[in-house]
Structure formats: structure tokens, C-alpha cells
Write a structure and sequence with these properties.
Immunoglobulin-like; 5-stranded antiparallel β-sheet; 31 strands; disordered N terminus; alpha/beta
């Protein structure tokens, strides 16, 4: 009994910190630190320059048990530990040499049973989920294709009660952790995703005050999760405006002045629509005992990839009578683009074309767009100069295209036909392996590039299966496209006897201009079949043994 009590005491004091601090220039370390502190309900702090160490030490005070997460290679200062100890604090330091490993280490240490999984690329997603994570005692896990298996292994051992996939994740990640995801929030629009969490937060804590932020940085005060954070930009999305108008929110807090013009304009429009709104702007802070007067806010820049999209080429394909534009996405983040295209012949405008809706350009990839155009109908002479003027607006979401790529170029002529062919030959579900396999075959005379997709009916509604990357297939070859981590109930299998499969394909990777729509039967390899055979064998063995025993017994009597 004494030993058990001693063990319980040790367990209760294993992590005796009462303050958590980050000393790292890497945003993931800071996100992990704040997430850990919020999950275990402790105060936190971070340094954001070599000069902020002493100020943070003064702010923390004396007599604390501090957990310090310090980057091995990217610490802001090497004096923070000694500065804290000089004020009679006990310091336990975790040296972070791998930010994603540290993230999982702190997730385990927190003892959390609820998790929100986000990508490492989009820092604004971390800011979006922080208040809701703090409210629900959830830990924020950062996952990408570099650590998907480690995340899956952690979730397998964590005894998770809830795992929310928030925003875009690499398909390698969703394949690896699919079995553990209990809910997905991913509309393809960061503002819509964010508003979903704001609504959930306010459903639990009906705060009439919200924080507006653009997701580019964390400020010490807003990361504690006291109020929900609404993502905006220098252009207020319509969805945000409509939500504020139709809610009982009456106060907005801003950090810094970059959003003031946009929010002031929104406030005036709301006033015209009959809604009054108070706006407070945080410009500085006072730290007693350190500096006199007002000092700058404690702000940390979040991981981000500033969008950078180029128009790679603009050509006219005479064989198919189409104008072709190829976009190249230079960063590791998805982009949406919507273009207007103007055709000019000898300085005279003859045709205007464009996109009806924004088009997704994969992160770090290229995508081509075609527009029907028959130059012959304009009676153009052979020596005429034909120019294309392209004005392409793009952004990180389809509803907020804030940036512009433009070109004005002499139209290059090409002649390329697409003889590619493709067929879907099989779709089957392996219940034991929990995976779907779609088999496709190249039926054409050239290499084919393709992107398959299909939907299944589940108890939670329609679920889409697709591939982020464009796949390729050699002449006459077949290939299995595998979707792992799929668990279908018997009822769900019955609902999907026939599945409509769609495949975009083509002979050029940038131009998947052909498509195949085919209904295929879902074949099922049931693990129960093996169980049935096993049971039959066991029964037969028992019968044979019984017969042998009976024979031996009779022989003994003789």
C-alpha cells in the first residue's frame, strides 16, 4: 500500500512545472509550447529577440518551476536559462533538435486525449485552432509527409478520444492517420474552416468579443484562447462580414495597425446595415519593473509561404484550336487562380475569355488551362501579330484572390494532339488491410497522366477519395491506386455496390483535358471469409479427434 501511494505521488509530481517558456526562432517550437501550456492550463512565454530574455525573466518573476523548450540550433539567446535561474526559478530544459519530434514529445507529455492535426505549412491554421484547442484541452499536432508515420504511431498509442483533421494535409498524412481521424474540417477555404471553429467556440462560450487576425503572427495575449480568433485579411471576406452582421458579436480586438483600414471600412458598412461594433487596437504593453512607458507587443511570426505564382507560358494549339496557359506555383502551398484573357490582333481586341471559377494549382506544381479559340473565324492574315493579355488573380483561398500575375505576350503557335486513352478495370476493398484499390489501364499509344476520384456513401455522408499528385502510366501498363486507412462497415459496403469513378487524364502532365466517367462494381475481400474457413477447419479437427478417441476407447475395451 505504501509503495502504491509513493508511486502515485511520483506520478503526480513527474511534471511539476508551473510555467512554460519557448526559446526558439522556429515557429513550430513556439506553437508546440503554447499548445502544451494551454492543454495543461499553465501560463507561458516566449522570447522573440536576444534582447527580450531579461524582460521575460522579469515578467515571470521568482520561485517558479519552469519548463524551457529551447532550440538546439536556433535559440534566440543562450542566456535565458541563466536569467531565469538568477531569479530563483527552477528550470527543466527540453532541447529541441527536431521541431516535429518535439511537438510529439510535448503532446505525449501533456497527457491530452484530444488532438487537432494541422499541416506544417500554414501557420494561420495554427492560430485558427488555438482558442478552440485551449477550450477543449486539445493538443495541436503538426504533420506533413516527413513525419506521417511518427504521428500515426503516436495516435495509435495515445488512446485518443477525438482527432480533428483541420485544413489541408498531405495525402501521405491522411493515408497514414486515416484510421484515427474522427472528424475533418476542410472546405478548401481557410476563412470558412476558421468560421466553423469560431461558431463551435461561441457555442460553448458565448463570447461577444472576437479577435481579428491575418494569421501572419502570434501575439502573446490572443494565443491564450480567451476569445475566438477570426481570420481576415486587408480585404474582409464576405463570409466573415455576413457572420459578424448576423451574430451578437459587438467587439473586435486587433493586434497592430495593418488591419485597421479594412476593419474600419467593415464597421462603417455594418453601421449602414444597422449593426454597431466597437473596435479596440493593441499597439503596445507595459511591463512593470523592466521598462518605463509602453513597449512593443510580444509577437512571433508564424510559419508561412508567401504565395508566388507565375504564368509559365501562353500558347495557341492549332491542332485542337485552343489557347493554353500554364501556371507554375513556386511555393509549398496550394493556390487558387482565376484569369481574364484578352486576344488582340494588330492592336485590336478581338476576343475576351476567362475562368468561371477559381482553379486549384497544386503546391509546388504546374497546371494548364485551355480555352476554346478558333482564330480562323477572325480572318487573320498570316503575318498578323497576335497577342494575349492575361490578368490572373490568385490567392490562398478561392474566395480571397488578393494577388495578381499578368503577362502580355506574342502568341506562340504549337500543334499537339492528345491520342491518350485510359480505362478503369477494377475497384476492390480489402477489409483486413483496410484499403481500397482502384486499378487503371493505359489503353492508348502514348504515356498517360491521370488523376482519379470517386465518392463512397458512408454513415457520415459522402466521402471523396482522390489523389493530390498527378499519376503516370506507361503504354499498355496497368497500375493499382491504393487508398489506405479505409474502414467500411457491412452496411456501407452494401450502399456502394456500384461506384461512379471519374478520371481526368491526358498525354501532357499539365493538361488533363480528357475525362473518363465509369460505373464499376465494388468488389470486397472480406476478412470474415478467412474466419469462416478457420472455424470450419477447427470443427473438422475436433470431429476427427473425437472419432479417434472413440475408436481408441473401443479398442481398449476389446
Amino acid at each position: 500500500m505504501v509503495a502504491i501511494c509513493a508511486l502515485l505521488v511520483l506520478m503526480g509530481t513527474a511534471y511539476a512545472e508551473d510555467y512554460v517558456v519557448s526559446n526558439s526562432a522556429h515557429g513550430i517550437d513556439v506553437i508546440s509550447t503554447i499548445s502544451y501550456a494551454n492543454a495543461v492550463d499553465l501560463p507561458y512565454g516566449f522570447v522573440n529577440s536576444p534582447l527580450s530574455s531579461a524582460r521575460l525573466a522579469f515578467k515571470i518573476g521568482t520561485g517558479r518551476d519552469i519548463l524551457l523548450i529551447q532550440s538546439r540550433d536556433n535559440a534566440y539567446t543562450k542566456t535565458l536559462e541563466s536569467d531565469l535561474e538568477a531569479r530563483n526559478n527552477n528550470v527543466e530544459m527540453i532541447e529541441s533538435s527536431d521541431v516535429q519530434a518535439t511537438n510529439l514529445l510535448l503532446a505525449e507529455r501533456s497527457g491530452a486525449k484530444r488532438f487537432i492535426i494541422i499541416d506544417t505549412t500554414y501557420g494561420y491554421n495554427a492560430l485558427s485552432v488555438m482558442p478552440y484547442a485551449a477550450l477543449t484541452d486539445a493538443f495541436i499536432i503538426m504533420a506533413d509527409r516527413d513525419n506521417e508515420q511518427e504521428v500515426a504511431d503516436f495516435l495509435a498509442s495515445a488512446g485518443a478520444l477525438s482527432v480533428i483533421q483541420y485544413g489541408f494535409l498531405d495525402e501521405e498524412v491522411t493515408d497514414a492517420i486515416g484510421d484515427y481521424i474522427t472528424e475533418t474540417i476542410d472546405t478548401g477555404d481557410k476563412y470558412e474552416d476558421n468560421l466553423e471553429l469560431v461558431k463551435r467556440f461561441r457555442g460553448r462560450e458565448n463570447s461577444k468579443q472576437v479577435v481579428f487576425a491575418d494569421g501572419s503572427m502570434i501575439e502573446f495575449g490572443i494565443a491564450k484562447g480567451d476569445d475566438p480568433i477570426v481570420l481576415v485579411s486587408t480585404l474582409i471576406p464576405d463570409s466573415v462580414y455576413d457572420y459578424i452582421l448576423n451574430s451578437d458579436i459587438n467587439t473586435i480586438v486587433l493586434v497592430g495597425g495593418n488591419l485597421v483600414p479594412a476593419v474600419d471600412n467593415m464597421r462603417q458598412q455594418l453601421l449602414n446595415d444597422g449593426k454597431e461594433l466597437s473596435v479596440f487596437v493593441k499597439f503596445g504593453q507595459a511591463t512593470p519593473g523592466v521598462d518605463s512607458g509602453i513597449t512593443t507587443l510580444d509577437i512571433f511570426p508564424l510559419p508561412s509561404y508567401p504565395l508566388d505564382l507565375d504564368i509559365k507560358s501562353v500558347t495557341y494549339n492549332e491542332a485542337e484550336k485552343v489557347l493554353e496557359i500554364v501556371y507554375v506555383n513556386k511555393v509549398d502551398a496550394v493556390a487558387y487562380v482565376q484569369a481574364d484573357v484578352f486576344i488582340e490582333v494588330n492592336d485590336q481586341a478581338v476576343k475576351t475569355m476567362g475562368d468561371d471559377a477559381p482553379i486549384l494549382i497544386p503546391k509546388g506544381g504546374e497546371k494548364g488551362v485551355q480555352y476554346s479559340l478558333d482564330l480562323e473565324e477572325f480572318g487573320i492574315e498570316e503575318d498578323a501579330e497576335i497577342y494575349a493579355r492575361v490578368l490572373a488573380r490568385y490567392g490562398s483561398t478561392p474566395t480571397n484572390l488578393e494577388k495578381v500575375a499578368a503577362t502580355y505576350a506574342l502568341l506562340a503557335m504549337i500543334s499537339v494532339e492528345d491520342p491518350s486513352g485510359l480505362d478503369v478495370t477494377r475497384l476492390y476493398y480489402d477489409e483486413g488491410a483496410k484499403q481500397l484499390t482502384l486499378t487503371v489501364k493505359n489503353t492508348g499509344p502514348v504515356m498517360v497522366y491521370y488523376a482519379p476520384s470517386f465518392e463512397l456513401k458512408t454513415d457520415e455522408g459522402q466521402k471523396e477519395f482522390s489523389r493530390e499528385a498527378v499519376l503516370s502510366l506507361g503504354i499498355g501498363k496497368s497500375k493499382d491506386v491504393i487508398f489506405s486507412g479505409v474502414e467500411l462497415s457491412g452496411g456501407e459496403v452494401k450502399q456502394n455496390k456500384d461506384v461512379d469513378v471519374h478520371v481526368d487524364y491526358g498525354s501532357r502532365e499539365e493538361f488533363l483535358t480528357k475525362s473518363l466517367d465509369k460505373t464499376v462494381k465494388l468488389e470486397v475481400e472480406e476478412k470474415e471469409q478467412l474466419a469462416d474457413y478457420t472455424l470450419l477447419i477447427v470443427v473438422l479437427v475436433i470431429v476427427i479427434v473425437a472419432l479417434l478417441l472413440l475408436i481408441l476407447k473401443k479398442n481398449k475395451r476389446r
